[in-house]
Design brief:
Largest sheet: none
Order of helices and strands: HHH
Helix content: 55-70%
Shape: elongated
Number of strands: 0
Strand content: under 5%
Radius of gyration: 18 Å
Length: about 80
């Protein structure tokens, strides 16, 4: 399954890397393109695994964004007290 995404040694692609891949190739990394799906079909179990991987990556992005938001809120509170 996709729990490997949650392992400490897994390197989540940066948002910039994902954006670059989308701009260059027109689809998410590890997800087949529309052309590939039309030509070769899709294994639904494999697609479910890939979707779960993306969900777990999105969860990690959200956690990281939340940490950044909390740090910024703390800075704002300190600045407002001055």
């Amino acid at each position: 399954w996709s729990d490997f995404v949650l392992a400490k040694e897994y390197k989540v692609p940066s948002i910039k890397e994902v954006e670059k891949h989308i701009v260059e190739k027109g689809h998410l990394p590890t997800i087949p393109s529309e052309k590939e799906v039309v030509e070769k079909g899709v294994d639904m179990l494999e697609m479910a695994k890939l979707q779960m991987q993306k969900i777990e990556e999105l969860t990690l992005y959200i956690i990281e964004q939340n940490k950044k938001i909390e740090a910024l809120e703390t800075k704002v509170e300190k600045l407002e007290k001055k």
